[in-house]
Amino acid sequence: MKEQKVNVQIESAKDNRTEDRMEEYVREMIRMLGEDPTREGLLRTPRRVVQSLRFLTSGYRQDTDKMLNGALFDVAYDEMVIVRDIEIFSLCEHHLLPFLGRCHVAYIPDKKVIGLSKIPRLVETFARRLQVQERLTNQIADTIMEKIHPLGVGVIIEAKHLCMIMRGVEKQNSVAVTSAMLGVFRDEQQTREEFLSLARGAR
Ligand SMILES: [Zn+2]
User: Fold this and answer.
1) 91 C-alpha to ligand 1 centroid (Å)
2) Does 3.40.50.150 match the CATH number of domain 62-200?
3) How many CA atoms lie within 13 A of 47 on its CB side?
4) I want to staple 115 with a disulfide (CB 3.0 to 4.6 A). Which of 64, 71, 73, 109 is the partner?
5) Neighbours of ion ligand 1 (CB under 5 A)
6) Model pTM score
7) 121-177: per-residue pLDDT in tens?
């Protein structure tokens, strides 16, 4: 018990040192951008930047196994399960700028289902990391496949990338759409179309 407490203290001291160094890097970056990090408006900015980056990458510290254990159930249901319009906020790994949009997740169970509320949590766990939209889409689909071995999984993500919009690479309204289709979603056109029309119903 005592030893555990000491370990926790060492861990949190290590964390504090890391946060301090991160803040110093942000302060240095502000300076190199030609700004004065000591002026009032910027004084607390390094701390805020570090805190918000920690939050936006908190998915690295979440364990999907732990999250889903206890939320997998045996059922006889064998129709399509769809959770649509899950909001996505992620960071593109190329520019560390946000991309945001919606995610639709569907699967056809084979004896096992995932508690419905866990699907948005699963999406969030992978979204709160440095990502590319294609990998995010695949990670969600692969994890569901791995966890409950359904007959198939479909994931669609529609997102706007601020790195494209703000830098004028693309028109304001362009949306990147990615999809991952596994099992019957890949092999059976009818299943895929049912999913696409249910996802489209979102609009
Ligand atoms: Zn980018």
Assistant:
1) 8
2) no
3) 6
4) 71
5) 92, 94-95, 163
6) 0.89
7) 999 999 999 999 999 999 999 999 999 999 999 999 999 999 998 887 767 778 999
